[in-house]
Amino acid sequence: MSAELELANHPTQAQEQETKTKPKTGAEVFIEALKDQDVDIIFGYPGGAVLPLYDALYRNPIKHILARHEQGAIHAAEGYARVTGRPGVVIATSGPGATNLVTGITDAMMDSLPLVVFTGQVATTVVGTDAFQEADIVGITQPITKHNYQIKDVQDVPRIIKEAFHIANTGRKGPVVVDFPKNIANAIFDSEAYVDEPINLPGYQPTLRPNYLQIKKAVELLKTAKKPIILAGAGVLAADAKQEFNEFIERHNFPVVNTLLGLGTIDNDHANFYGMAGMHGTYASNMGISEADVLLNIGARFDDRLTGNLSKFAPNATVIHIDVDPAEIGKNVPTDVPIVSDAKEALKALLKQDFDTADFSEWTTQLNDWRTQYPYWYEEDEQGVLLPQQVLAAVNELTNGEAIVTTDVGQHQMFAAQYFSFKKDHRWVTSGGLGTMGFGFPAAIGAQFAFPDEQVIAVVGDAGFQMTLQELGLLQEFNLPVKVIMLNNACLGMVRQWQQSFYDERYSSSLMPVQPDFLKLAEAYDVKGFIIDDPATAKAQLQEALDYDGPVLVDCRVKQLELVTPMVAPGAGLAEMIGVEKE
Amino acid sequence: MKRIITVTVINQSGVLNRVTGLLMKRQFNIESITVGHTEQPGISKMTFIVNVEDEGKIEQLVKQLSKQIDVIKVNDITDKSTVIRELALIKVVAPPNLRGEINSIVDPFRGQVIDIGKNVVTYQVVGSPEKIDAFIELVKPYGIKELTRTGVTAFVRDSQLQQKTQLSLLQ
Q1: Which positions ≥6 away from A34 have C-beta within 8 Å?
Q2: Superfamily of domain A3-186 in the CATH hierarchy
Q3: Interface of chain A against chain B, CB under 8 Å?
Q4: Which of A143, A202, A334 sits opposite B21 (nearest CB)?
Q5: Is B149 in the A-facing interface, judged by CB distances under 8 Å?
Q6: Fold matches, B2-76 and B82-154
Q7: Residue A2 pLDDT
Q8: Whether the predicted pLDDT of A559 surpasses 60
Q9: Measured between alpha carbons, how far is A441 from A460 in angstroms, rounded to an integer?
């Protein structure tokens, strides 16, 4: 940021004095409410209906990041929320600004990310008249938000903002939209008439502590289990319960598998960790679930990509499910012991129970055998074409599993989940539930703003990257040292894979033979570009790219026909994986 | 199976939309829905009848509704001893010479004449949905010009005859 800009953004004492005595507008109250919530960064994009809000943001210490598209702004806020555990804050204008956020809001809803999204709205006097840039964003976002508001009275501004942050960041976290009509932002707030009351939401009382009797029941099952398995999901991370989780696992020596979003709950090199379960998970984890007699699910929602065919899911297991959202329990998988609780509180309660387990060493031996016998595998290309797995294995080695890694959805996402070996929590930022292309790159930007000194790597495909690459402008503007590792297979990898496997190789609209010159594109944005296409030199080049002080785009020319293996085919059970071994 | 669900909500704009939208999203079929104020200011109550396949579905419905911020309480009162009422307005073709005959049907149902035209009479009937169905069947042969029903509103009786299992959130 230039010195001039710095100056413009900071109020002088006289100006501050002036704002104290002047009657406050809704927009100014909005800024104060954000400060009360310790908001230090907003991702957004201005427009007509939010001009008053942006005017109040001017000369204000809250940092505003001007994305190049609203979708970029909201994915950046999601990335920020994922790595910090704090709500990401977004502003967009009414109409198209607001509708451009819809994908990000849905993504945050599916992956339980806390967001507070402010959308501009036309003046309440013209709402409902199809005014310029009017969209019914409250109606549109009703099914994709944890809650939403339209502010109808300036006196409600502080209360609604306080409630919005509370709802977004407690219980099962999620996005809250606050629709802010322009005339409300301009209206004069009556400070004297306003009484700051504590939050009163009789319909929102999330159960955070577990029922003692249910914990007892769970312990009884875990005590006698001969083949226990623990499935940990993102709920453990959202509750910041990594420490309690690991203590619990180590005390009883339980085997652990993760969901895609749960990666990071345990050091991936831990002896008790058997990998990610589900469609492209490890053989050991999927067999572990399939053969277990007690399955303890902590903070995972039994998503269909995890369970495969439900009728074949964990057929021998008594299921214990800990979830802060009661609606997730029993939704997909019949549950024997439901425990409605925050993961951290439930784990604390479990840790208080002093119990010994049965001897399940045979089971552990079996799991260990599966793990050693059937690891993720790939075959080097005979013609020496670079493989995506080679790239990611090298990046993982070079970053020692400590970098923040973001992805879109698809082949590169699965390869990243397989080949990165996370040591810490809150390092893995991926679009799991919604599976959003174009998520990874802006999410990396949000993560980098949250932690300027951390290594942030955006693993993207060439197709997904082209959906939100306009945010290269942010790398240029802030010289953000995000490293974009683009696995370029000149196609939509996962679509192509399914067409190869299930549609007799009819590659309908999934190939992208015409690509931009990514080096030139990088150059246009003052981003350092690399092309990597040789497995022999890949690691050294990646080292150079990662060591570069500044933003980097690496165009990795990888094998087009590579498949993600192993796989649970659609309709199959977890125990019916294909591609488990080299042929 | 049909279930009667009552939902106590904070009376805010959009809350009806949220509840019905949720039912639509989760593929529940609403048979009838009524909304109105309660004895508490700012609190409204919805009563709706849904058709569901099994108990798992209805449990999911209750849980999803309970998750809504503006929803205070959700009850499945199907298995309870309840008071259930619905109102119907029925415009029947009733030339003067047939009115006596039609009235003899109306009387046992304690229906009321609300409006009389040259050739049509509008009746009001209040009762359980089954009673209204029966009434409609009986006047159908005379010719129904127009028919409107309010949908069911209900609550639990003060004294319960027997305690039946109810789906609970936490079990």
Answers
A1: A42, A62, A89, A161
A2: Thiamin diphosphate (ThDP)-binding fold, Pyr/PP domains (3.40.50.970)
A3: 138-139, 142-143, 146-148, 150, 167, 201-204, 207, 211, 325-327, 330-331, 334, 338, 340
A4: A143
A5: no
A6: yes
A7: 43
A8: yes
A9: 7
Q: Give yes or no for a contact between A221 and A248, defined as CB atoms under 8 angstroms apart.
A: no
Quote the pLDDT of residue A356: 96
A575: tokens are 């125990």
Contact A203 B70 (CB under 8 A): yes
Q: Does B21 touch chain A (CB under 8 A)?
A: yes
Per-residue confidence at B14, pLDDT binned at 50, 70, 90? confident
Residue with tokens 């022999």: A536
Q: What confidence category does residue A59 fall into, taking pLDDT thresholds of 50, 70 and 90?
A: confident
Is A182 part of the annotated catalytic residue set?
A: yes
What gap in Å lies between CA B134 and CA A237, rounded to an integer? 58
Closest CA of chain A from B94, distance in Å: 44
pLDDT tier at B169, thresholds 50, 70, 90: low
CB contact under 8 A, A142 and B56: no
- Closest chain B residue to A324 measured between Cα atoms? B67
**Do B67 and A138 make contact, defined as CB atoms within 8 angstroms?**
no
Domain ranges of chain A: 3-186, 212-373, 388-557
Average pLDDT over residues A536-549: 98
Q: CB–CB of B25 and A327 under 8 A?
A: no
Q: Which top CATH class is A388-557?
A: alpha beta
**Mean pLDDT of the B72-97 span:** 94
Tokens of A150: 């339209």
| Binary contact (B170, A204; C-beta < 8 A) | no
CA distance A207 to A211: 9
A330: nearest CB among B14, B59, B67: B59
CATH number for region B82-154: 3.30.70.1150
Is residue A337 helix, strand or coil?
strand
- B43 interface with A at CB cutoff 8 Å: no
pLDDT for res A7: 46
Q: Which CATH number fits domain B2-76: 1.50.10.10, 3.40.50.2000, 3.40.1120.10, 3.30.70.260?
A: 3.30.70.260
- Do A497 and A411 contact (CB within 8 A), yes or no? yes
Distance CA A445, CA A41 (A): 12
Q: Could you tell me the maximum CA-CA distance found in chain B, to the nearest angstrom?
A: 61
Q: What is the pLDDT of residues A300-354, one digit of tens each?
A: 999 999 999 999 999 999 999 999 999 999 999 999 999 999 999 999 999 999 9
pTM listed for this prediction: 0.94
Which amino acid belongs to residue B4? Answer: I
For A212-373, CATH gives 3.40.50.1220
User: E-assigned strands of B52-110?
Assistant: 71-76, 82-93
Question: For chain B, which residues make up each domain, given as ranges?
Answer: 2-76, 82-154
- CA distance, residue A145 to nearest chain B CA (Å): 10
Among A512, A511, A531, CA closest to A520: A531
For A168, nearest residue in chain B (alpha carbons): B69
Q: Which residue has the tokens 């996402």?
A: A413
Chain B residues whose beta carbon lies within 8 Å of the beta carbon of residue A203: 9-10, 68-72
pLDDT of A465 higher than 80: yes
Task: Give A186-228 pLDDT, tens digit per residue.
Answer: 999 999 999 999 999 999 999 999 999 999 999 999 999 999 9
Chain A residues whose beta carbon lies within 8 Å of the beta carbon of residue B66: 326-327
